[in-house]
Amino acid sequence: MITKMTNAKTIYLVDDDDDDRMLIREAIEGIVKNVTIVEITDGQELLELIEKVNLETDPSLILMDMNMPRMSGIESLSILKSNPSLRHIPIVMISTTSNNELIRQAYDQGINAYITKPVSIQEYNHLAEAINVCFLSNYPTLKSIPASINLTTQQILIIEDNHDHWELMKLTLNTSMPNIKLTRTEDRESTLLFLTDRLKNAQPLPELILLDLYMPNRSDGLQILAAIRNFFTMHRLMMIPIIVISSSDHIDDIKESYRNSANGYMVKSPDLEDSLFYFQELAHFWKSAITLPKKV
Question: Which of 102, 185, 237, 287 is most deeply packed, by most CB within 10 A?
Fold first, then answer.
């Protein structure tokens, strides 16, 4: 039985289209438990509301359309991410655009993820489950990964300093996803060496990075996160999604991870089966639901 996290979450849903807001809201409320959704019609209204709320508790996530009147998603995103007191709020942009330059610009401005706006009820439910797992630190609601999902080409880098934890993760993930390629590094130096060697030898970089936050201290994990971000910026590479993983569900740990540009935060379950399925869902959604800029 999957354990559900009970902490209340608030989502700001920013979109000028009434029908789109309704469909997204209904899908999320059908998947995510104990959630409050605040509907907002444009970026200017979002900024006005943010000034009035208690940022210690509100919001947990912003879902925002790219194209809106008065102030676009890109404009409000830039303002939010340039404010140190607001950088901890994860922002997922949802839009119909397939313009690679706009998607790249949104990531450069600091969005946590870009999701193409759904066109069917099934896709809206898929979006809601992706949001639930990847950005609200909740465990999957159902053990229901479609059998057709193909993760055979996905390469994942796991940064974990505890050898026993790594062996357990490797065993369980390889058992459930036998064709996935897993690599482990143990600290900042070995991580940068691995990335440098892959780049130098023209080998594919990982498609997803899972970073343990306490390495062994939180500051160590955050330093590794910053070092990876700096590596990709310095070499002008497309950024790889980095998901921070931890046994801690403390709000300060979550906020600091997002403040330091983590794409997502995953709370490990004490139950092995739950954690295994959580990893599967996480990999599945970052592969199938979330759009990254294409290489040019």
Answer: 185
Phi-psi category of 202—alpha, beta or left, where left has phi over 0 and alpha has psi -120 to 50?
Answer: left
Calpha distance 57→190 (Å, rounded): 36
CB crowding 236-274: b at 16 or more within 10 Å, else e: eeebbbbbbbbebeeeebbbbbbebbbbbbbbbbeeeeb
Query: What is the average pLDDT score of the chain?
Result: 86
Beta bridge partners of residue 243, listed in sequence order: 210, 264
Q: For 2-11, 132-141, 194-203, 216-225, which range has the lowest pLDDT when averaged over its residues?
A: 2-11
**Tokens read off for 39:** 């509907």
Query: Residue 95 pLDDT more than 70?
Result: yes
Main-chain phi, psi angles of 115, to 5 degrees:
-125, 130
Q: Which amino acid is at 67?
A: N
Structure-block tokens of residue 207: 């498609």
The structural domains of the chain, ordered by start, are 9-134 (3.40.50.2300), 155-288 (3.40.50.2300)
Query: Is residue 147 scored above 60 in pLDDT?
Result: no
pTM higher than the cut 0.85: yes
Q: Classify burial at 181, counting beta carbons within 10 Å of its beta carbon; exposed 0-12, middle 13-18, buried 19 or more.
A: middle
Q: Please, which pLDDT band fits residue 146 given cuts at 50, 70 and 90? A: very low
Q: Are 5 and 16 in contact, with CB atoms under 8 Å apart?
A: no
List the single range of 144-148, 220-224, 255-259, 280-284 with lowest mean pLDDT.
144-148
